[in-house]
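Input.
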Amino acid sequence: MKNPTLKLGAAVIVVVAAVSIGILVKSHHAAAAVDKAAAPVKPALTVTTVRPSSAKLPIKLAANGNVAAWQEAIIGSESSGLRLTEVRVNVGDVVAKGQVLAVFSADAVNADVAQARAALAEAEANAGEAAANAGRARTLQTTGALSAQQISQYLTAETTAKARIASSRAMLSSQLLRLKYTQVVAPDSGVISERSATVGAVVGAGTELFRMIRQGRLEWRAEVTAAELVRLHPGTSAVVKAANGSELTGTVRMIAPTIDTQTRSALVYVDLPASSGANAPFKAGMFASGQFELGTSDAITVPQQAVVVRDGFSYVFRLNADQRVSQLKVQAGRRLGERIEVVAGMAPDALVVVDGAGFLNEGDVVRNVPAIAPAGTK
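Output.
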């Protein structure tokens, strides 16, 4: 009986020992887990943060269009069958109103003027004789020395002579006008844009010789959709930028009364400051883009580095109280220098990560160093 008792006692001792060892192992693991949880998590990155700023941003409407002449004058010949002897201007020349641009040969016209003067002198001499005869006929009208028919002939001859004087004077005026037309003058000040006049050519009346941009004025014809048209009115300022990088500030002169049925857009005519010469920044026929300035509005902005673009969407990272970051999907708006407007998706008082935002992911632990707020914001 002793041997079974000893065996049972030994087995009990072994079981108790095993349970004790298990309890000790579990206690050690639990203590290690507690120590691990109590240990601080190492930050993944050191970042800077700022609060969003409020600012007044300009409201702008972008558009595209062509630069064209405000008005283009066609200067043609008013003489017929005359030879062009002199061309005094070329393309790009700035001319003044009344300046002589080209000269036709005046030899034949001068001869016609001399002939018209002679015809007028002859008519005036004949009129003098007819007036004298008519005067004598009137004095003898009551004496019966002349018949009524003769008196009538003298009076008619006087009237006819006066009419011939008027006709001769009209002919002389016509020839003098032809002489004036031998000089082609500028109808207004401006810039010569085209020249087809050639020395030695014999041209007919109405033939185009020059084209001129009146007063050197250009305009930007912007294409604006019907939905955006209501936001514009005459007097609105616009900044126009050419393909070469030049910029001019113009003013809306008028808005077209009709809308193109194909493009569903209307033309807005913007007056540009006058410029001329070979180095003028804008030229007729040039394509240009621009923005209409419609005023300002309040906006919430963040630094440009704070906005991260991923998969076509814009995000910012908000720093939470536990030093972890949350990724917020936002709607970006206008830009002003190095700042971007946030339209939606972020609270105005959120603490936003700036430097290092592009390297973060949802839930990362970071070390925060506040950034200096930009001057002029609040």
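Residues 31-38 have pLDDT under 50 and may be disordered.
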